[in-house]
């Protein structure tokens, strides 16, 4: 890991966390019909990936976790959202 001043490190952490949270927002969870409990568990996975990324700057790990989350969301949508089953995406 590179040597950062405390100010640089704090700015870097904020930047990394913003990247993670933006990735979460990009997943588009509104109107999916997925139960809250399932979404909460998925958010825990994302938070863990973000923390890992913030500590180790391991972009491969973060991207891999986000891809699994996206696929999981698609599967949950097919299970819990009748519109998704017919091929129509929720609004």
Measure the end-to-end span.
43 Å
Unreliably modeled segments: none
**Average pLDDT over all residues:** 77
- Structural class determined from secondary elements: mainly alpha
Major β-sheet profile: none
Overall geometric form = elongated
Strand content: under 5%
Q: Which percent range fits the helix content?
A: over 70%
Order of helices and strands: HHHH
Describe what this molecule looks like in 3D.
This protein has helices at 6-26, 36-56, 59-80, 82-85. It starts with 5 loop residues before the first helix and ends in a 6-residue tail after the last helix. The chain is elongated, with a radius of gyration of 16 Å. The chain is mainly α and 91 residues long. Helices cover 75% and strands 0% of the residues.
